[in-house]
């Protein structure tokens, strides 16, 4: 049912441990779609170590930084631009707590609880605010025009003008 509140855009990505297995990619993607997220853009990339350091610059100096950038640049990842009402909070609720072992105890139905391997190898990433979403989207999708999408496509998507393209794992506007 269409919702009158505007959609938010966020950046999520599936981390290398998920991307290694097609079935895990399908499982996580189908959870995303069945939780009423629109997949606006999707691609597969492998970050260099220095790109991973740039992405996680805010965590430089933390004890887990080296293993985090090593893990993120160890294989392909799948960045997604997701749209939904209240997307930041909804995606963080779906991911669960940062630390996999905490997630297993306090939020057993979340993605990190079910697919995470360690506190670092925790399956998925999600923006933590609207502002960080905008930066993270431009990091992975520099050609994506955030303002144009919000001004032109947001309303179309919100009022149901999208169809799911299962082959490309993306929602397309009817006019695309
Ligand atoms: O990803 P999220 O926003 O939930 O957590 P973060 O505090 O922004 O940390 C970024 C990433 O660093 C996490 O997703 C983990 O992969 C990693 N991390 C870690 O390895 N050990 C920790 N104690 C905290 C975070
Ligand atoms: Mg974070």
Share in helix: 40-55%
From the alpha-carbon coordinates, what is the Rg to the nearest angstrom?
A: 16 Å
How do the SSEs run, as a string of H and E? EHHEHHEHHHEHHEE
Low-confidence stretches: none
Mass-distribution shape: globular
CATH superfamily of the domain at 8-41 and 80-159: Nucleoside diphosphate kinase-like domain
Structural class: alpha+beta
- Strand content of the residues, in percent? 15-25%
Assign the CATH class of the domain at 8-41 and 80-159: Alpha Beta
Stated plainly, the CATH topology of the domain at 8-41 and 80-159 is called Alpha-Beta Plaits
Please give the count of helices: 9
How many beta-strand segments? 6
N- to C-terminal separation? 22 Å
Identify the strand order in the major beta sheet: 2-3-1-4
Average pLDDT works out at: 95
CATH architectural name of the domain at 8-41 and 80-159:
2-Layer Sandwich
The main sheet comes to: 4 strands, antiparallel
The ligands bound in this entry are:
cytidine-5'-diphosphate, magnesium ion
Question: Can you walk me through this structure?
Answer:
Helix content is 44%, strand content 17%. By secondary structure, it is an alpha+beta fold. A 4-stranded antiparallel β-sheet has the order 2-3-1-4. Strands 5-6 form a two-stranded antiparallel sheet. The two termini are 22 Å apart. It binds cytidine-5'-diphosphate (CDP) and magnesium ion.
Task: Describe the structure in brief.
By secondary structure, this protein is an alpha+beta fold. 44% of the residues lie in helices and 17% in strands. The chain contains nine helices and six strands.
């Amino acid at each position: 049912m269409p919702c009158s509140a505007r959609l938010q855009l966020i950046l999520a990505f599936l981390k290398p441990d998920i991307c290694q297995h097609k079935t895990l990619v399908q499982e996580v993607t189908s959870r995303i779609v069945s939780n009423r997220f629109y997949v606006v853009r999707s691609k597969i990339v492998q970050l260099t170590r220095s790109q991973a350091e740039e992405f996680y610059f805010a965590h430089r100096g933390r004890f887990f930084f080296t293993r985090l950038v090593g893990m993120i640049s160890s294989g392909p990842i799948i960045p997604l631009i997701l749209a939904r009402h209240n997307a930041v909070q909804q995606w963080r609720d779906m991911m669960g707590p940062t630390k996999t072992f905490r997630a297993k105890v306090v939020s057993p139905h979340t993605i990190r609880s079910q697919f995470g391997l360690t506190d670092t190898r925790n399956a998925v990433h999600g923006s933590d605010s609207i502002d960080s979403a905008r930066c993270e989207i431009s990091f992975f999708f520099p050609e994506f025009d955030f303002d144009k999408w919000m001004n032109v496509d947001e309303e179309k998507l919100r009022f149901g003008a999208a169809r799911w393209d299962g082959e490309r794992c993306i929602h397309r506007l009817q006019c695309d």
